[in-house]
Amino acid sequence: MDIRGSKIFILGAARSGIAAALLARDRGGIPFVSDIKSEDENRENIEILKENRIEYESGKNSFDRIRDYDLLVISPGVHLKEDIIRGIESAGVKVVSELEFACMFIDKPIIAITGTNGKSTTTALIGHILNTSNVSTFVGGNIGNPLSYMPLSRESYEYAVVEVSSFMLENIEKFRPDIVVFTNISPDHLDKYKDYDEYKDAKSRIFLNLRADSPVILNRDCDELVSMTGRFSCKRLYFSRTNEQDADIFLQRRSGGIEIVYDLEDRSGSIHYRNNYLVGEHNLENVLAATLASLVAGADPSGIESGIGSFKGLEHRIEFVRELRGVRYYNDSKATNIDSTLVALKSFDSNIIWIAGGRHKGTPYTILKDVVKERVKKIIAIGEASGIIENDLRGVTDIELVGSDFQRAIERAFVVSRPGDVVLLSPACSSYDMFTNYEQRGRVFKEIVMGLR
Hints:
Strand content: 15-25%
CATH class of the largest domain: Alpha Beta
CATH superfamily of the largest domain: Mur-like, catalytic domain
Helix content: 25-40%
CATH architecture of the largest domain: 3-Layer(aba) Sandwich
Number of helices: 16
Strand order of the largest sheet: 7-8-6-9-10-11-12-13-14
Low-confidence stretches: none
Number of strands: 20
Mean pLDDT: 94
Largest sheet: 9 strands, mixed
């Protein structure tokens, strides 16, 4: 797309907005970045704009000047009020997401991964497998670098593997990935959407432009996902941990270990599963999804097996931190919803000291009662949601509230733990009451844990 001389209004000065601004400037456009946050709140990103002589504003959004622009690029997570949307539409300005803006300058195949849980690990694993198979692959989107950095790179990529959130899909118009992976669906972001149906509708937009022969990889074990996606036109391929009959790829547990068995139109076979870094049954689903996507993309089975075996997992996702005095510490700060935390709790048999809490996202914690009763010996509740956690799980196990003193929460876990215990940070909440993001929360957790003596 030729945008030379075009005036581009970019809404949001976080990572995606900055990447879009740099891409627009690189392709001859005239970007203007607008962010409601103050300059002090967003200093690091503002410095990038200054260094590249890109005009910006902080602390406000000057929508009154939108008529002067040719294109509006919206960053993920930016929600416009209806009156603003009507004003933009009446001004005749085209609106696209940063995801779609980046795709205007990409002519390589795109694998898009979405879902409620597991999408980051699946995205990273697909990228790792393809790169291990000597297929130069950009990995980004909602994980790592925004997609706008791909056309800015000097690297000659053959594939883009992109994690796609519901927020990123809200403003797409023509986005059509070559392969889609949909890991699962469960309630999330109910603090941002009016209800679960609206969240599912946002996720379903990934099907908007798919053709009848577009391959879509789905979790056969998630009944709601299968039902929800049944009305869309695409070529469905299923992965399953438990169902060999109705899946294109599945697991077989044998005396020699676990085999990944696949039976596709053009080839069939098996891949031996060996990985010492991924914890929990849920990661077997991620491996199946990534394997199937890699096979569809043309990767060789031997390269896939090598990629799976050398993949070390992702930071902040049931990440082993250390063992101290017989107690293992795990950082699962990425678990910002209850379903993610349920998966984490099920990854350990018992004796869990669970650090939970943060900013509540609307889903009751009562869903966790059974697994907490079975596996958690103590909950240490933190942040704004601590009182809600106590109320929802009262009487199920021992609960201690420590307010917003994050260090005290970890120190209390250290004091009450015994050899054989697992200390698990898996908040089931967003981080914004105490931290900038879940990454910062996870890093602080690890720093404190590594300082324990």
